[in-house]
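Q: Given only this backbone (143 positions), what sequence would you predict?
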C-alpha cells in the first residue's frame, strides 16, 4: 500500500508542479517563523503535505491560528495524533507537527481555523488524554 501511495503522491505533485510552472517569478517566497506581512507570521507545519505552512494572525491581544493540512481528518487526528494516513508524505513528521501545533494552540487557548474542520471550521483546541478535541465556536449568523 505504501508503494502505491508514494506513486499516487508523486503523480499528484507532478501535476501540481505542471499547473504552477512559470509562476516562480510572480510570487514572493518567505521563510518559516518570520513575519510575512504586518501581523502575519508563518509557522512550519510540514509532514502531511511537503512544505506545509500555517499562519498566526495577530492584532493587539487577538490571535488566530490558520491551518489547512496539519490534520486533514480532524475527527481522527485530533483524537489520535499518532495515527497516520496514506496521504502523509512523512508520517513521523506529520505526527510531530500535529502534536507541536495543537500543544501550542491548547496552551495559548488560541482560536484555530481549520480548512478541514467541520462547520463552522473555527474554534479552540484543548488537550484530551493523549490527544486533543476541538471546541467549535458558537455560530452566529448575524454580523
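A: Predicted residues:
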Amino acid at each position: 500500500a505504501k508503494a502505491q501511495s508514494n506513486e499516487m503522491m508523486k503523480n499528484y505533485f507532478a501535476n501540481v508542479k505542471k499547473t504552477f510552472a512559470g509562476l516562480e517569478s510572480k510570487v514572493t517566497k518567505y521563510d518559516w517563523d518570520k513575519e510575512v506581512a504586518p501581523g502575519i507570521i508563518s509557522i512550519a507545519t510540514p509532514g502531511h503535505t511537503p512544505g506545509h505552512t500555517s499562519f498566526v494572525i495577530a492584532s493587539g491581544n487577538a490571535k488566530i491560528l490558520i491551518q489547512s493540512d496539519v490534520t486533514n481528518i480532524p475527527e481522527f487526528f485530533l483524537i489520535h495524533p499518532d495515527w497516520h494516513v496514506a496521504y502523509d508524505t512523512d508520517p513521523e513528521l506529520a505526527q510531530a507537527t500535529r502534536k507541536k501545533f495543537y500543544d501550542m494552540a491548547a496552551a495559548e487557548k488560541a482560536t484555530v481555523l481549520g480548512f478541514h474542520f467541520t462547520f463552522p471550521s473555527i474554534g479552540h483546541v484543548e488537550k484530551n488524554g493523549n490527544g486533543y478535541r476541538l471546541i467549535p465556536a458558537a455560530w452566529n449568523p448575524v454580523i
